[in-house]
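Journal club side-thread
Mid-discussion, someone asked how the predicted structure for our own chain would compare to the paper's figures. Pasting it here so we can look after the session.
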Amino acid sequence: MGTNVVSLPDRMERQWRVYESNIQELMRENGIDADVGKVALARVKPIYLRCAKSHAIPHVSDPEAVLQEVNRWASQLGTGLLMEIILREVALINLRGEGS
C-alpha cells in the first residue's frame, strides 16, 4: 500500500500567491475584466518565478548584513521584472512601428 505524500508549494510559489491575490484586487479596482486578468496573471507568473530567486537570509546578529541581503534580493527581483517590462515595451514599439 502506497504512502500518501502531500507536496507543498515551494517558497516562491507561496509568495506568488500573496502577490496574485493583491494584483487581482488591483485589477478589479482598475476595471480589468476577470478573464483577461487571469490570462495576464498566467503570463506574468513564470516571469516572477524566474526573477524571484529564493534567497536565504543569513541568520546572523548583524542587522546590517541582513539588510544588505534583503536589499540585494529586492534589487535583483526589481531589475528582472523591469527588464521583462522593457522587453515587452520594445516588442510593442516595434509592432507599432514607433522606433526610429
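Post-session note: The CA atoms of residues 27 and 37 lie 7 Å apart.
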